[in-house]
Amino acid sequence: NYLRFFEAGRNEYIRAHGLRYRDFEERFALRLPVAEASVTYRAPARYDDVVAVETSMAELRRASARFEYRILRGDDLLATGHTVHACVDLEGRVRRLPQELLDRLADGAGNR
Q1: Amino acid 111: pLDDT
Q2: What would the pLDDT profile of 18-47 be if each residue is shown by its tens digit?
Q3: How far apart are the C-alpha atoms of 78 and 112, rounded to whole Å?
Q4: Which residues pair with 78 in a beta bridge?
Q5: What is the pTM of this model?
Q6: 21 burial class (0-12, 13-18, 19+ CB within 10 angstroms)?
Q7: Which residues, including other chains, have CB under 8 Å from residue 36's CB and lie 6 or more apart?
Q8: How many CB atoms lie within 10 A of CB 32?
């Protein structure tokens, strides 16, 4: 379930930067599939726990993005991790991220 939490955090991160993921797909005819994912489990979440997902942009390159995550229950760190996403067209070919998206997501990002 932590990977689902990562997805929700990533979607909210993109939304907070002025673009819904669905709009990104429709407007640019591009997708951001997960190319790599990693989770480090530190403590279990239990059924009906309220958790917070902290999401940050760790690296933004021309055709990929790396997000980092922290999942917390109150002050307790439950998991950390990251996902790397390739930018691809509808046929699955790697494409550059649109400049508008780079500009919107660049806050707090590492390398381009």
Answers
A1: 40
A2: 888 888 899 999 999 999 999 999 999 999
A3: 30
A4: none
A5: 0.89
A6: middle
A7: 82, 83, 84
A8: 21
Judge contact between 81 and 41, C-beta under 8 A: no
Q: Which residue has the tokens 């508008």?
A: 100
The whole-angstrom separation of Cα 94 and Cα 101 is 16
pLDDT at 20: 87
CA-to-CA dists, residue 13 to 63, 81, 91, angstroms: 18, 15, 26
Radius of gyration of the chain from its Cα atoms, rounded to whole angstroms: 14
**Angle subtended by helix axes 21-28 and 2-16, to nearest 10:** 70
b/e per residue 49-88 (b: at least 16 CB within 10 A): eebebebbbbebbeebbbbbbbbbeeeeebbbbbbbbbbb
